[in-house]
Amino acid sequence: QVQLVESGGGLVQAGGSLRLSCQASGIIVSRNALGWYRQAPGKQRELVASITTGGTTNYVDAVKGRFTISRDNAKNSIYLQMNSLKPEDTAVYYCYNLSPTYWGQGTQVTVSS
Q1: Is the separation of the CB atoms in 22 and 77 below 8 Å?
Q2: Which residues are within 8 A (CB) of 84 and not within 5 positions of it... i.e. 6 or more apart?
Q3: Please, is 86 exposed, middle or buried when counting C-beta atoms within 10 Å of its C-beta (0-12, 13-18, 19+)?
């Protein structure tokens, strides 16, 4: 059974930082493309960042230079370091595995102005 368990969300002031973690079980993160989506209230879910098996990373323009996705093969986990947070980053953040598609349960990130 595949599980993706996110943690690290919370409430932070604008300009602050958070680090999201996604602990995987049932898959090996180094052998899969994974990433982070987010969904703000009233908006569609959008891809924030992804990392391929080869370690190539991609980001949506809105977070480039502020967010960093990384992977720890020993811990079978991926992370999203979020710096210089803005109120518009407020959303539920989901960890996902590309193929097959698996989703985590989500973690709330709230950035106050």
Answers
A1: yes
A2: 15, 17, 66
A3: middle
For residue range 34-60, what is the model confidence (pLDDT) as tens digits? 999 999 999 999 999 999 999 999 999
Q: Give, for all 113 residues of the chain, the pLDDT tens digit.
A: 999 999 999 999 999 999 999 999 999 999 999 999 999 999 999 999 999 999 999 999 999 999 999 999 999 999 999 999 999 999 999 999 998 999 999 999 999 99
The C-alpha atoms of residue 35 and residue 51 are separated, in whole angstroms, by 6
* Closest C-alpha among 103, 110, 111 to residue 2: 103
Tokens standing for residue 98: 């590309």
> Per the structure block, which two tokens stand in for 21?
């973690």
Q: Answer yes or no: are the C-beta atoms of 71 and 62 closer than 8 Å.
A: no
